[in-house]
Structures are given as structure tokens and as C-alpha cells.
Amino acid sequence: MNCQKTKLIRDKFSMATLISSTSLSSLFLSALLLLLLLCLSSKPHVVEAKKTEETFPQTHTLEVASLLASDVCNRSPKVSNQDSSLQVVHNYGPCNPRNQGKGAHVPSHGKMLLQDKLRAKAIQAKAKGSKSSSPTAPVQSGTGLGIGTGMYAVTMGLGTPAQEQTLLLDATNDLSWIQCEPCSTSCHQKLPRFNPAKSSSYKNVSCSSATCKSINGLGQTSCSGTTCHYEYQLSSKSLSGVLATDTLSFTKPDTIPNFIFGCGQKNEGPFARASGVLSLSRSSLSLTSQIAGKYENRFSHCLPSSSSSVGHLTFGGKIPKTAKFTPIKNDTRSSVYPVDMTGVSVGGRLVPIDESFFEDAGCIVDPGTLISHLPPAVYSTMARAFEDLMTDYPRTDGYEDFQTCYDFTGYDSVKIPSISFHFNGGLELAVDKSGIMIALPSLKKVCLAFASNFEDGNEAIFGGSQLRTYDVIYDLAEGRIGFAPGGCS
Ligand SMILES: *[C@@H]1O[C@H](CO)[C@@H](O)[C@H](O)[C@H]1NC(C)=O
Ligand SMILES: *[C@@H]1O[C@H](CO)[C@@H](O)[C@H](O)[C@H]1NC(C)=O
């Protein structure tokens, strides 16, 4: 067998081709042929290579057309069919019912990436605020609401009879909120706004209630008469409204009576013309906390591989056998999902980065952030390793913060190195090939789909692009997050 191993290393690119071939039978046949040829021509005694190095670099074959947005929604049959599942769609893609017909509003890539950066900053500020406050203090005042737009949306009904709402998935905001009538400022959205007057189950939260008091640590409350108002200021923007409850219906048989949310009347900020934000955070007022008892304190989501396919959000449900887990860090002050990232592999080989860079920064899992934001030292080492394996392709100018970019015009498919992230507990998460590069916006400029944080000490954010196609299981009862491949396509 020695002859096989050495030759395979020398012939690294041909092996990589084989590995990423999609047809199993042709892979098997060609492997047999190659083995035969190699063994016939090789010298006998050679040092045995380590198993993990055999196939370096591990690559994916990426059809370049898959990098471009499509206008047609491809509803794969492989959407979770568990009872308490909702379809997850890309907010700007053709599967979002809101975007059907004319007038779909899609912001430029530049604008989307800028918003993503602002979102990352707001999350980092929130994490920092909670890090520095004393363990018993509430989350720093004013950081609980309004962390901008997310990328993925679900449709739910609110009120009796149900009024349809498109809500952005979010794991960082402390409270869900929905644009309501009467709306005074920044009320843009495609579907009609929620009208409390047309719902027989709508109630204002009273000022003297514990719920109203609990929001005080998150934003600011004030009372007009007996009604509990919230208000949050994000630089010059402001979000305010009434704290309310109503029946939330997500799948036909499943309803949640007295769901607590912010009924927004002033909704400034980049909210992407959705009806509002659905909070899946660890805050006591998130949807997740409100329904913890009903679904074994567990939910999962799968973000689709492209803006034209469909994923799911599932409450409760079975844990796939292939799931691998990492603990959620025991930080009771923060409502986000912190985990321990410990390393990055490119092409199947761990890149040399001191673990302290990961430890000092920390890491938050957030499906609402478009791309992952990494500590500068981690990002640059990873990008170099990636570039070293991409020398076959023409480099091109960067795009704002993205400097590792290639011109893929004229290619049908390209071979890109695999990228995987290591987490505490021995979890290695191989990023789906759809989450490694991003076209900005054409094939002339396709860049490594990661961003660098401004400072080493800022939290890494493991974002939506790199979570694609995995079932991401938030098993809060066990204090862990799991990942199972092939959750959606
Ligand atoms: C809720 O509070 C708002 C603002 O104080 C008020 O205008 C509205 O009538 C109240 N609605 C209900 C159902 O009590
Ligand atoms: C998390 O921290 C709390 C409070 O400090 C402690 O009571 C609990 O046992 C810890 N849980 C784990 C899993 O370490």
C-alpha cells in the first residue's frame, strides 16, 4: 500500500479531483485505475505519510453559476417535515413570498455588507457590555434591542384571526418586535402592517406587570396610562412601541397564546422591509424562552445553500444521529450563543494560529449575520493558506474589506480548498461549499466569504453563510449547540 500513499501525495491535485467528483461509481473506477497505474510505476520503500495528509489539499468542485443569484425558487423536497417546522427563506430571494411579483427591493452588495458589518459591531458591543458588567447586573442598558437586519425570514401568523408576518430570524436581539399600526416612522414593509385593532386576542402589557419590569434591563420603558412602552436608541435611530401580547401561530395546529412582543410604532434602522424580528436568543423574553417548556427547550434551523432555495426552523423535533455538539459557554449574563472556537483548517490542514487568539476573542453563533467575522490574526492566516492553494486562478482587486478575490469569468467550475472550523469538544465543522466564496457581485470578483474584525479582542461571529445546509440544533436543555450535515439543500 506504500506505493499508493506516496504517489497520492505527489499527485495531490489529481487526488483532489477524484475526491470532489460527484459520481460515486466513476470515482471508484478511476480510483482503481489510478491505483493500478501508480503501483506499477512507483518505487517500493517510502516513509508512510500521516493519514490526514493523504489528500491534502481537500477541495470542493464549485459550479461557478451557483455563485450567482437566481430568480427562480427551487423548493427541494428535502425540507424538514416535522410537525413544528416552518420554511426559512432568504429575505431577498425568490422563495420569500414577499418578493413574488414586481417591486422586490434588493439592496446592493455594498449596502448589504456594510449593514452586516454594523450588525457585527452591535453584537460585539453587546457582548462586551455583558462581559464587563458584574454577574448580577442585567445586560447593559440599551443593548438589548435593535441589532439591525438579518438575512433569513420565516412567515408566521399573529393575532385572531391571524395576520401574516414575515419575520427575520435573529439570535441576538432580546425581544421579538413587529411593525404595528398606527406606525409613525419608518414603516416600510411589503405585507400590510399588523393591526392590533383587528385582533380579538391582542392585549397591551400593563405597566405594573413583571414583563414590563423585565424589559427595563434591555431597553427603556415608560408608562402612558397603564400601557408599557419600550424605547431604544441606536445612534441617531430610534425604535419604540408598546409591549404587547397576542396569539402567535406558526404551523396550522401550533399556536402560542400570549406571545410577548414589541408592537413597533417607530421603527428606524435597516430592517429590510420585513414585518419585524423573531428573537431566538437566550433572553428571558425571546420566543425561545417563552416556549421552552413546550418543545423540550430545543429548536433547530437549516439555512439554505442559496438565496433561491428553502431551509427550515423547527421547534423540538428529533436530534439527527449524525449531530456533533459543542457546549454553549456558561455565561448567564449574555443572551447570545457563545461557543469556543479553537482552530481553522484550510484544505484539510490546520493553519498555524495560536489558540490564545481564539480564547481572547470568544465566538458567537449568529444565523442573522451574513458572513463570519474573525479576529484579524485568524482571518489573515486563514486567507494566506487559502491563497496558497488558489494559485491556479487569476487574482483580482479586492472589494472594500474583501482582499482575497479571484476572477472566475470563463470557468464552468473551479476547485476550491475546503475550510473547516474546530470547536471545543472535538467538533470539526466543514463549511458547505456554498459558504466559502461570495460573488461581489459578478464572477469577475469572487472573494473569500469571511471578514476580519477590527480588533483582536472583538468576538468572532460565526455567521449564516458558514452555517448553510447544516441542521443547527440549539439544545438548550443540555447547554449545547449541535451540527448535523445535510439538513437542507
Ligand atoms: C394599547 O395602548 C395604546 C397606547 O397607549 C392604546 O392606544 C390602545 O388603545 C391600547 N390597546 C388596547 C387593546 O388596550
Ligand atoms: C453555570 O454557571 C452557573 C452559575 O455560576 C452554575 O450554577 C452552573 O452549575 C454552571 N453550569 C455549568 C454547566 O457549568
Automatic annotation (TrEMBL):
One of its GO terms (biological process) is proteolysis. Keywords: Signal. Residues 1-49 form the signal peptide. GO terms for molecular function: aspartic-type endopeptidase activity. The keyword Signal applies. InterPro entries: Aspartic_peptidase_A1, PEPTIDASE_A1, Peptidase_aspartic_dom_sf, TAXi_C, TAXi_N. The active site is at D170, D366. PROSITE patterns: PEPTIDASE_A1. It holds the Pfam family TAXi_N. Residues 152-484 form the Peptidase A1 domain. It comes from the Eukaryota. PANTHER family: ASPARTYL PROTEASES (PTHR13683), PEPTIDASE A1 DOMAIN-CONTAINING PROTEIN (PTHR13683:SF907). Belongs to the peptidase A1 family. This is Peptidase A1 domain-containing protein. It comes from Turnera subulata.
